[in-house]
Each structure stands twice: as structure tokens, then as C-alpha cells.
Specification:
It is a single chain. With 440 residues, this protein is an alpha+beta fold. The chain folds into 2 domains: 284 residues, FAD/NAD(P)-binding domain (3-Layer(bba) Sandwich); 144 residues, Beta Barrel (Elongation Factor Tu (Ef-tu), domain 3). The protein has 12 helices and 17 strands. Strands 6-2-1-7-17-16 form a 6-stranded mixed sheet, covered by helices on one side. It has a 6-stranded antiparallel sheet with strand order 10-11-12-13-9-14. α1 links the parallel β1 and β2. α1 packs parallel to α10.
């Protein structure tokens, strides 16, 4: 491999960085992929693997008639490494695409480290050269030195919010006599393990949850949570019924022990193919570790639960993209510096990975001195880019893919979804055709 000064630098070995490196390398570009772990760990990561998943092991639904499924379909058409490996390391999760997180990260790491055009460098990057083509995909846990450098170059301030992750429980420690398998939408499914709560126990559980000791941010930090990943105790604080109509809703579930629908239910999802570990679905939390053991132990089946990983909170950093980022994902005034992933203000695994793919094509266009245009706002990927670069947004907050941010066609309400999907198909195909000229 040539000297690193002649290579494109990709900083960050998460989902977005891996996609960027993979797509550039497949176009014959030499890539130096920098990952600071394991030399310097983050508050959330545990291993040295590339693309380690630190929150849920679920990538959400794959139905192409939904916004999340549509995004995945577009990524598959772009030969997404994240999508390909996700399917090869899939674990049962009903209509969702969930993975064995260790198998997933190991496969990604093996593919990237063995690629002839990619050199993985285990070093922390703290400075940026505006002369070298660079993809910055350091994610929401960007180190402080690099965040300061990025702020200085961009001329703007970083924003941040707090993200909470769910506990993972040792399957052996779960009392299976009190839990039952089943899905809300597919009663015969064994993808989810359900722990039922009756009315009195549910309210006692909520009361304890609201009075429990919690881990709070520092006094100088404002605790701003992303709405799509609220701690379970924050949801409970909005009303005692809020959990029962959210993560603990019992709809569609019948407890075989009573032949009735429970008042509330905690769902557990397999973390790996062997079913040795279960994730508490929707139970992101900032409770202290002792309180997690005590309060979650109130749930039938979890009285003696052993935690492989407790729930926790960590600060996520993202840039004020509407004021600082161009449509090609470059920092305004610095075409060589392209951002990708959650640091842009997209929220979610697949959303972040998709931005890595776009960042790769943006860099490729720059290297070939060709213009680059992202997909249109009537596509899933294009809608995300349009959202994060919309200067009219004054109070910027991270966003998942959803039909609300996609450009809607003029049509009667009952026909709008179908018309939206039809227009997306046409628009994305036209963009794919334009990519062929870039790849030549």
C-alpha cells in the first residue's frame, strides 16, 4: 500500500466509517481507516471490533413499505456492507432485523482488515488536515480533542444530547416458568420472551422506578435526550400509564398461565443466535447499577437476573449541520472534509451507515473532479440529507428516517403512501443511474 499521505483518511471505525472505507476501497481508492480503540476506549464500547453495536442489537423493520424498510432497501441497492453482514448474522426478532452483535462485529472487522485497499490504523486522531481528503465518522462519542479541532475548523459549536442503553441479561438467570415466548403481532413466534405484570405489581414497579437513585449529568451539562431513545424512567415520569402504552404494552399477548392478556409486559429479545443473552427491549435507563438490579428484579422472571451489561447513559455529540454542512456532506468551505454518521445529526444505526455510503461517493466525486449530487428528498437517504442541511431548522435535533421528512407527492390521503413509494422508486433509480458515470 502507498504512503498514507496519498490515501483517503477515514476517521472512525463505526458503522458509517466502515461503509465509507468499504465503498472507497471497492472503487480502487487506498484508504487509511483510523480507529482509536482499543488504545483509547469510549464510555460505551467494550471491544476493539469495528462496527461494535453499543445500544440495541436491532436495526428495526425491513418491510419496504415502511420508512425504515425503505432506507434498508436503498442501502442494499448500494451494496451496503452493514446490510449484507446484518443478514448473515441475523437473530430472530419478528419483523425486525436484529443481529448477534459479536458475530456481526467480528465479520465486519474481518472483511475490512483483509481488504487489500484498506489499512486499519489503531491511533487516535486529534488534528485534521484541510488538504487531505478525509471522511470524519467519529460518531456521537467523538473524543474531546478531535471535537475541539472540528469546532475550530467548522467555525461552529457542537451540540450534544444524552443517550441511554438497555441492560442485557444472562439467559440462565431468567425464571422461564414465569415468562413466555410470543410476539405482539405473531402469537406463535418465539422471537420475544415476555415477562407479564398484573395491575398492582405494575403500579408498584412504576412507583419504585420514579423514586429510584439515578445517574445525573454534570451540573454544567444540560441533559437533552433524543425522543426516540428516552430512558424508561423519563417515560414513566410523563404519566403512570405511559409505559403501559409504550415499551410495556400488552397488546396481542396472552399469558399461557392465565389465558388472559397481562396488564403490562416487559419484552426481552435475544442478543445472540444461541439465546444466551437477552436485551430488555425499550428499557434504556440512567438508574444506578444497584437500583437496576433491585427494581428490575421486581419483574416476574427477573427476580434473580444476572446482568451481562447494565443500562447506562452517555453523552452523544453532533454538529449543527444545517448551518455547517453542504449537501455533499462536506464542511462549508472545506470540500476535502466530509462528515458521516451520527455526528451529522442522523439518529439510528442504518441512518448513520447510509451517510457513510454517501460520504464515500462525495469523496470519490471530489477526487475525480466531478460534481456530486445526493439522492432527491423524495428518497429515504435523500430525505435525511435534506433534513440535516435544512437551514430553516432553528432548533436542530437528531432525526430517524420517517415518512414525515420525505417529500410527499400531491395525492389524496388514502393514496399518498403508495404514490410516495412509487416516486421514491423512480427517483432513486435515476440517481443510481447517475452514479454509474461517477464510478467510471
Amino acid at each position: 500500500m502507498k504512503n498514507s499521505l496519498n490515501n483517503v483518511r477515514v476517521i472512525g471505525g463505526g458503522l458509517a466509517g466502515v461503509e465509507a472505507a468499504f465503498h472507497l476501497a471497492n472503487q480502487g481508492i487506498l484508504v487509511d481507516l483510523y480507529e482509536m480503540r482499543p488504545g483509547r476506549q469510549t464510555p460505551a464500547h467494550k471491544t476493539a471490533h469495528l462496527a461494535e453495536l453499543v445500544c440495541s442489537n436491532s436495526f428495526k423493520g425491513v418491510d419496504p413499505s415502511t420508512a425504515h424498510g425503505l432506507l434498508k432497501k436503498e442501502m442494499q441497492e448500494l451494496n451496503s456492507i452493514i446490510m449484507n453482514v446484518a443478514y448473515s448474522s441475523r437473530v430472530p426478532a419478528g419483523k425486525a432485523l436484529a443481529v448477534d452483535r459479536n458475530e456481526f462485529a467480528q465479520q465486519i472487522t474481518k472483511t475490512i482488515t483483509s481488504h487489500p485497499n484498506i489499512r486499519v490504523i489503531r491511533e487516535e486522531v486529534t488534528e485534521l488536515s484541510t488538504n487531505n481528503p478525509t471522511v470524519i465518522a467519529t460518531g456521537p462519542l467523538t473524543s474531546d480533542p478531535l471535537a475541539l479541532t472540528l469546532s475550530r475548523i467548522s467555525g461552529g459549536k457542537h451540540l450534544f444530547f444524552y443517550d441511554a442503553i438497555s441492560p442485557i441479561i444472562d439467559a440462565i438467570s431468567i425464571n422461564m416458568q414465569k415468562a413466555f415466548f410470543g410476539s405482539r403481532w405473531e402469537p406463535a413466534s418465539t422471537d420475544y420472551l415476555n415477562c407479564p405484570l398484573e395491575k398492582d405489581l405494575y403500579y408498584a414497579f412504576v412507583d419504585e422506578l420514579l423514586s429510584a437513585r439515578q445517574v445525573y449529568p454534570h451540573e454544567f451539562e444540560e441533559a437533552r435526550y433524543f425522543e426516540g431513545c428516552l430512558p424508561v424512567e423519563v417515560i414513566a415520569d410523563r404519566g403512570k400509564e405511559s409505559l403501559r402504552f409504550g415499551a410495556m404494552r400488552p397488546i396481542g399477548l396472552i399469558d399461557p398461565a392465565t389465558q388472559k392478556s397481562p396488564y403490562a409486559v416487559l419484552q426481552l429479545r435475544k442478543e445472540n443466535l444461541k439465546g444466551e443473552a437477552f436485551n430488555m427491549v425499550g428499557f434504556q435507563t440512567r438508574l444506578t447499577y444497584p437500583e437496576q438490579k433491585r427494581i428490575f428484579g421486581m419483574i416476574p422472571g427477573l427476580e434473580k437476573a444476572s446482568f451481562f451489561r447494565h443500562g447506562s447513559i452517555h453523552r452523544n455529540t453532533f454538529i449543527d449541520s444545517p448551518r455547517l454542512i453542504e449537501k455533499d456532506l462536506s464542511i462549508r468551505g472545506h470540500r476535502n472534509l466530509v462528515l458521516a454518521g451520527q455526528i451529522l445529526g442522523v439518529e439510528g444505526y442504518m441512518e448513520s451507515a447510509a451517510m457513510g455510503i454517501i460520504a464515500a461517493f462525495s469523496i470519490l466525486a471530489m477526487l475525480k473532479q466531478k460534481p456530486f449530487f445526493p439522492p432527491g428528498p423524495d428518497t429515504a437517504i435523500g430525505a435525511l440529507i435534506s433534513y440535516i442541511t435544512d437551514a430553516q431548522i432553528k432548533k436542530f435535533q437528531p432525526m430517524n428516517i420517517n415518512f414525515g421528512i420525505m417529500l410527499a407527492p400531491p395525492a389524496p390521503k388514502k393514496e399518498k403512501r403508495q404514490r410516495l413509494l412509487e416516486r421514491e422508486r423512480s427517483s432513486f433509480q435515476l440517481w443510481l443511474n447517475s452514479l454509474e458515470q461517477l464510478r467510471q
